[in-house]
Design a protein that fits this description.
The structure holds 2 protein chains of 2 kinds. Chain A is built from 2 helices and no strands. In chain A, 72% of the residues lie in helices and 0% in strands. The two termini of chain B are 28 Å apart. Chain B is globular, with a radius of gyration of 19 Å. The chains are: A mainly alpha, B mainly alpha. At the A-B interface, helix 2 of A face helix 1 and helix 6 of B.
Chain lengths: 76, 220
């Protein structure tokens, strides 16, 4: 009686393991597989970096101008 | 230079989001695919808007307590900057929704309630322009601000999380920190802080120009 019980539990565990691994691999999610492959995404990153740094430089210049105006006395 | 450190930090954190947010490998999620990277840009818009509105209501209460026009300027300009970020969040969200949920607008509870909340704040801006008396304008808009904020709490923070929504974070979860994959949230958190700092920086520029405007007209 013991051996069949052992085998049935073993089978259950194994089948569970199989279904678990199947769940892990089954749904293939579509991704940009060549995202880094041709290196062109890095160009996009570089372009976005340039634009962002440019905007920051603009904001710093704007802030300096505001500071100049703040130091000016308007009451005369 | 030393008092500007937080602006530099904000810019660097956002830059980190732009560079690493695109260069990192993201978890494979159905429907979202590569668009999950939007989380580094779309969600921080709302965080920034919310933070600016929270600070704004603080200055509105300060105005009511101290009657100093400076607080009114701070409060109103924070709302204007917050609304800019809200508009950016709305536009980016609609674009993202088009590719994932199939339509720019699907009457999702979070979409509707956020729009409602933003319309209340737009009403604040319109209300301000309709009052010419400075003291009256400041007092009425400070009170309106408190009510708008009191409405925003259930509209953005509570109600959408209790109902079924296309957005993540239903059933009482915090949408940004609850179910996000750890490899994403470890990047998302600093980037969100960076955007909030950028929002504060932009708001200070608005506030300072407005103060100059008032001083030039001898109103302050």
């Amino acid at each position: 009686m013991k051996l069949p019980v052992f085998f049935s539990t073993l089978f259950m565990l194994l089948s569970q393991a199989v279904t678990l691994s199947a769940q892990e691999t089954a749904p293939k999610v579509q991704m940009a597989e060549n995202f880094y492959g041709e290196g062109k995404i890095y160009i996009v990153i570089a372009v976005m970096t340039i634009i962002f740094v440019g905007l920051i430089i603009y904001m710093i210049r704007l802030e300096r101008k505001i500071k100049q105006l703040e130091q000016k006395d308007f009451r005369n | 230079m030393l008092k500007h450190w937080w602006k530099a930090l904000g810019a660097l954190l956002v830059l980190y989001g732009i560079i690493y947010g695109l260069a990192m490998s993201v978890p494979r999620l159905g429907i979202l695919n590569e668009t999950i990277r939007n989380v580094f840009f779309h969600v921080p818009m709302w965080f920034t808007m919310t933070v600016l509105f929270v600070i704004s209501v603080y200055y509105a209460i300060m105005y009511l307590a101290r009657n100093d026009l400076k607080y009114d300027i701070w409060s109103s300009q924070l709302i204007k900057t917050g609304l800019y970020f809200g508009c950016l969040g709305m536009l980016t969200g609609m674009l993202w929704a088009r590719s994932t949920w199939g339509a720019f607008w699907s009457n999702d509870p979070k979409q509707v309630m956020t729009l409602l909340s933003m319309l209340i704040y737009f009403a604040y801006v319109v209300l301000r322009t309709s009052i010419t008396d400075l003291e009256k304008r400041a007092r009425i808009s400070a009170v309106f601000n408190v009510f708008a904020f009191a409405l925003m709490i259930p509209l953005i923070w509570i109600l959408p999380r209790l109902t079924e929504s296309l957005h993540p974070g239903t059933g009482g979860d915090n949408p940004a920190f609850g179910k996000m994959a750890p490899e994403l949230s470890i990047v998302f958190r600093p980037v969100a802080i960076g955007w909030i700092l950028m929002g504060l920086w932009i708001a200070t520029l608005f506030i300072r120009t407005e103060i100059i405007k008032y001083k030039k007209q001898d109103l302050l």
